[in-house]
Amino acid sequence: MNPRPKMAPPARVSREIRINANRTEIAAQEWKHGVPTKNVLLLHGWQDNSNSFNKLVQLLPQEWWLVAIDFPGHGLSSQRPEGAPYIVTDWVSDVRLVVQSESTCCWLSQIII
């Protein structure tokens, strides 16, 4: 008799959150289950969005609190105000605002880029 194959763990499902930052709305996906043991902020590259982490998230420990943001002008985040340039160094300010927002409440312990 063959042993029964192991069942895959249930897929992690994200919750959408929105963060207001400098006249721009930043969209993010959050994966949280129970009491988190580690908090991880997932940051995408240029011409990408938070959905690029959907497969990776399924491989990370369930007890990690994961947040993947869409930088302004990417994914579900709004565009920067008209005439405002898109400069990669501005992303540092965007990340700081996300980490300090009520939705995430200053929890950052590790960044995966």
Automatic annotation (TrEMBL):
Keywords assigned by UniProt, alphabetized:
Hydrolase
State if Hydrolase is listed as a keyword.
Answer: yes
Q: Which domain of life is it from?
A: Eukaryota
Where would you find the membrane-spanning parts of this chain?
Answer: none
A Pfam family it matches: Abhydrolase_1
Give start and end of each AB hydrolase-1 domain: 39-94
**Gene Ontology CC:** membrane
Q: Name one GO molecular function term.
A: hydrolase activity
Q: Which PANTHER family match?
A: MONOACYLGLYCEROL LIPASE, SERINE HYDROLASE-LIKE PROTEIN DDB_G0286239
Name the protein family: Belongs to the AB hydrolase superfamily.
Q: What protein am I looking at?
A: Serine hydrolase-like protein
Source organism of this protein record:
Hypsibius exemplaris
Q: Which lineage is the organism of this entry classified under, starting from the top rank?
A: Eukaryota, Metazoa, Ecdysozoa, Tardigrada, Eutardigrada
